[in-house]
Amino acid sequence: MHGIIHLKFTSNNTLVTLTGLDGKVIISYSGGNSGFKGSKKSTKYAKESIIEQIGLEATSRGYFRISLHFHGGKMRIRKCVRMLKKLGIKTLMINNLRKIAHNGCRPSKVRRI
After folding, report:
1. Lowest pLDDT segment from 19-23, 97-101, 105-109
2. Domain boundaries in the chain?
3. Is CATH 3.30.420.80 the classification given to domain 2-96?
4. pTM above 0.85?
């Protein structure tokens, strides 16, 4: 089957979700669910263990082809793809959903004296 893995890396936590193509959540993991507390939820080791957990769960449910959607770029994409490939999951598409600057807010009016 084909699914989508959403990876959200924030400065305080790591959120990983496996959804179907219709967008319904199948599995969801975070740093707190995996046993990490406090500032350890956003460490490199926590990210690797969460991706490994969701990869094992995805293969047990029959998801061997996935698309990756990244939110935030704190972890290297290649490392994530390599970890999933080692578990037998083929990555079909990688999509970076990072926010892009669009010229900012309108500046305030110039003060007249």
Report:
1. 97-101
2. 2-96
3. yes
4. no
